[in-house]
Amino acid sequence: MNHPIQHPVIDDRMARLRQRDCPSSDFRRFVQEIAQLMVPAVTANFPTLPVEIETPLEITTGQMLAREIVLVPILRAGLGMLEGFHRLLPEASVAHVGVARNEDTLIPESYYFNAPANIQDAQIIILDPMLATGGSASTTMSKLKNHGAQHIHFACLVAAPEGLKNLHAEHPDVPVYYAALDTQLNQQGYILPGLGDAGDRIFGTVRP
After folding, report:
1. Which domain holds residue 116?
2. Which residues pair with 129 in a beta bridge?
3. Is residue 60 part of a domain?
4. Does the residue 50 lie in any domain?
């Protein structure tokens, strides 16, 4: 289930942050702004429940979200999207998942997991700027499912066709939302044309 999110402001911010000379402070801000603009699309199908509310004038019926929301940034780059989602969903809890590639097996492994107690019944939104091979996202989804998560969504800025294919093969039940679909991966597993290493650019750790 692919869900491209198209919006002129998202396109503008994507063009700006892709630029090689975009400073870290601006890159971080653009990532947050894109993430915030993605929230309505990612949450559009979340279930609601009717509730009776009292306005200053009369009693009426409104709709409130049926489930609590848990945001799951994949460490560390996913933290760059967290603030954008939290601005519109300040009531959301946050789980953290750390995933790193084993240099011997080249397989992503989870090295850190911390999630709130309501994860089984909550709407889960995994955040990671880049969907390259899909390994980190798939590992995170498996970890969450092993802890009982059922309602999982994945949101990224840039996706590669290879990552989408791999992710849907391993987790066909998880919808994927992205702001841009790029061309392919290079031999090192980087997305082309991409935007470089999102974590390094967000946190200013780019090496010359």
Report:
1. 2-45+67-203
2. none
3. no
4. no
With beta carbons less than 8 A apart as the criterion, state whether 68 and 81 touch: no
Structure tokens that stand for 147 in this block: 């802890």
Residue 107 pLDDT class (50, 70, 90 cuts)? confident
How confident is the model at residue 52, as a pLDDT? Answer: 96
Per the structure, how many domains does the chain have? 1
Task: Confirm whether 182 is domain-assigned.
Answer: yes
In sequence order, what E strands does the chain have? 2-4, 48-54, 59-65, 69-75, 93-94, 96-101, 108-114, 123-127, 130-131, 151-159, 176-181, 184-185, 191-192
Half-sphere CA count of 151, side-chain side, radius 13 A:
18
Token pair of 60 as six digits: 């009426």
Residue 166 within any structural domain of the chain: yes
Residue labelled with tokens 């004038």? 57
Distance, CA of 20 to CA of 39 (rounded, Å): 27
CATH number reported for the structural domain that contains residue 188 in this entry: 3.40.50.2020
pLDDT of 33 above 70: yes
Q: pLDDT (tens digit, 9 = 90+) per residue, 112-125?
A: 999 998 899 999 99
pLDDT at 57: 95
Query: Binning pLDDT at 50, 70 and 90, where does residue 47 land?
Result: very high
For 15, the 3-state DSSP assignment is: helix
Predicted TM-score (pTM) of this structure = 0.92
CA dihedral 54, 59, 60, 63 (to 10 degrees): 30
